[in-house]
Amino acid sequence: MRVAAALVLLSIAAPAAAGKPRAPTKLRVTAIDQTSVRVTWHNRSRAARPQLAWRRVGSRKRRATKVRRRRGATAFLHRGLQPGARYVYRARACRRGRCSRWSRRRRGGPLTRRMGAPAPQPAPGGGPTIGSCPIFPPGNPWNRDVSADPVDPRSNAYVASIGAGLHLHPDFGSNPAYGLPYIVVPASQPRLPVVFSQADESDPGPYPILAGAPVEAGSDRHVLALQDGACRLYELFFASFAGGSWSAYSGAVFDLRTGALRPDGWTSADAAGLPILPGLVRYDEVRAGAIRHALRFTVSATQRAYVHPATHFASDATDPNLPPMGLRLRLKSSFAIGGYSREAQVILSALKRYGMFVADNGSSWFVSGASDSRWDDAALDDLKQIPGSAFEVVQSGPLHKP
Q1: Quick check: 339 and 31 in contact, CB under 8 A?
Q2: pTM across the whole model
Q3: What digits encode the pLDDT tens for the residues 164-189?
Q4: E-assigned strand segments in 116-172
Q5: How far is CA 26 from each of CA 110, 138, 163, 249, rounded to the nearest angstrom?
Q6: pLDDT (0 to 100) of residue 60
């Protein structure tokens, strides 16, 4: 009897405790191009070394090809596959000669015309909404289609300074430690006082942010609240609550119906003077199949300048090849996205059509999203395959320098 199964053996490290390591779960096979696939899994025994094995469907060879991965690995890029062939993968975890049971088989192969649904396209109509409020008017820069805009003459230099060889990274997922939480409050929400360290560039309180509002994990401690009915967005940076009032380094209020910019030279809860919530990847949008706005991302170094809609810089560097705050990049139209997960395709389609703004200093190519326990982390991991070289800079307005 012919066996047509390809095994992917994953020895995923078990802790030092006795017994076999736990078997990996959520095995996933994603086509990348015509000769490669990406195999991902959920690692439940971090101290072990993953082993991978596979067999081509229809091959006369009964023995699977094996590869050993580093400890704690959760992905393997399988290159050099036969175009059009199908493979079956399976996984287990091994440590010190003891192995877990095998995971369930998963079949996949290189990208073909039959694989992958067409990339979802944003539906026609108005811009994004949350509750009863528009997230800025349709013609606002955040909601403008820039897929046909000219490329900036300095595009290659900007991308090189950000890191052409680095990759996109979703800075959000099902773990609440990643991503930015936000809340929607009613127009009747009582207001609480806010004390600012950077009061001269902050919109004064009180703000309609309840005492128990979620605060972003990590050092930035952002708080985002949209006031439904009034359609105003309230955002705080480095916020904490004590004694019946909020304290924060800076804060800003945005009228979502008008989309008015901050005064030139003013910060917000973001280094660029931009709003944060309008640039987040939100689960409900991705589930619906369309993101109708630009996204927000960070870079490791910026220059002492900004481009509208940004209104603030956060650097002393004068290197003209460094990106200014508010610089807009988009995914090149020629970059094929058909082999990625559905979630990744929705996000990548938005990056082709609306692009993303440089909003803060941080890790390069980190795209911001809203915290949500419903995210499929394995699907989002597909974004980590997108290189910086796949992006180009959209020609924008003049540089504003101090």
Answers
A1: yes
A2: 0.72
A3: 999 999 999 999 889 999 999 999 99
A4: 129-130, 133-134, 169-171
A5: 20, 39, 31, 42
A6: 63
Residue 280: what pLDDT? 98
First to last CA, the chain: 76
Residues with Cβ within 8 Å of 96's Cβ and at least 6 positions away in sequence, in order, are none
Q: What is the pLDDT of residue 18?
A: 53
Question: What are the extents of the domains in the chain?
Answer: 25-108, 116-402
Strands (E), 62-151: 65-68, 75-78, 87-95, 98-99, 106-108, 129-130, 133-134
Query: What pLDDT was estimated at residue 122?
Result: 41
Q: Domain 25-108: which topology?
A: Immunoglobulin-like (2.60.40)
Q: Please state, in angstroms and as integers, the Cα–Cα distance from residue 237 to each residue in 199, 230, 247, 322, following that order.
A: 12, 22, 9, 25
DSSP state of 207: B
Query: What's the CA gap between 169 and 15, in Å, rounded?
Result: 28
Residues forming a β-bridge with 241 = 246
| pLDDT above 70 for 120 | no
